Amino acid sequence: MAGKLQPERVDGGLTAAGLRFGIAVSRFNSFITERLLSASVNALERAGAGSKDVTVVHVPGAFELPLTAKKLAMSGKYDALIAIGCVIRGETSHYDYVCSETSRGLQLAQMDTGVPVLFCVLTCDTLEQAIDRAGLKGGNKGFEAGLAAIEMGHLSRKIRATHSAPAATGKTRRK
Ligand code: INI
Q1: Predicted local distance difference test score (pLDDT) of residue 3
Q2: Residue 13: per-residue pLDDT
Q3: Helical residues (DSSP H) of 92-140, grouped into ranges
């Protein structure tokens, strides 16, 4: 028989009104990244975000996304960020370095700052795989990232509001 315990649930909403978003997008493979960007903006707009609540910053390539995301996060202006890029395997190991450092750097940016950074960087073997994920058979990963950004922005606000440690009183505990 199931128990009677009813755990507290903390869920992020899916309305974007009142939240602020930053989007860092790579110019490299812009044929793909601009489609991902449009879908992200579309998701935010349809969920109620206003123009002044969304900032888009373009960077040269995926490798430049982590530093840009970290700077945006440190500005304190955003509830969530979306990093958009597309890395396509070439003939050398360059792909592996760009992929690993971009994902590692974006994870570090969110862990260091506490601001959610959504990973919308396609890492594909072929251009066809990228196209599939930017509006064809695989849907559009930009739209998914937009929705995930809204959810994480809400969740972060909620956790901050309900689970933050009480403000320090200035008193030190006696040993
Ligand atoms: N940047 C990408 O965003 N996608 C790629 O596929 C890519 N490839 O294949 O080289 C790429 N390289 C550029 C890199 O991100 C930096 O912009 C560049 O090395 C300057 O730091």
Answers
A1: 86
A2: 86
A3: 94-113, 127-133
Residue 137 alpha carbon to ligand 1 centre in Å: 25
Of 146, 162, 161, 160, give the one whose Cα is nearest residue 16.
146
Q: What pLDDT, on the 0 to 100 scale, is given for residue 174?
A: 52
* 3-class state of residue 170 by DSSP: coil
Give CA 97 to chain center in angstroms. 21
Residues of the chain with pLDDT under 50: 175
- 94 catalytic per annotation: yes
- Pairwise CA distance, residues 48 & 56, whole Å: 17
| CATH architecture of the domain formed by 28-51+65-160 | 3-Layer(aba) Sandwich (3.40)
Residue 2 one-letter amino acid: A
- What is the DSSP secondary-structure string of 44-69? HHHTT--GGGEEEEEESSGGGHHHHH
Domain boundaries, the chain: 28-51+65-160
pLDDT at 168: 53
Give the DSSP H/E element, type plus range, for residue 37. helix 30-46
Q: Rounded distance, CA 60 to CA 123, Å?
A: 17
Atom of ligand 1 nearest to the CA of 95: 9
Find where tokens 């862990």 sit. Answer: 111
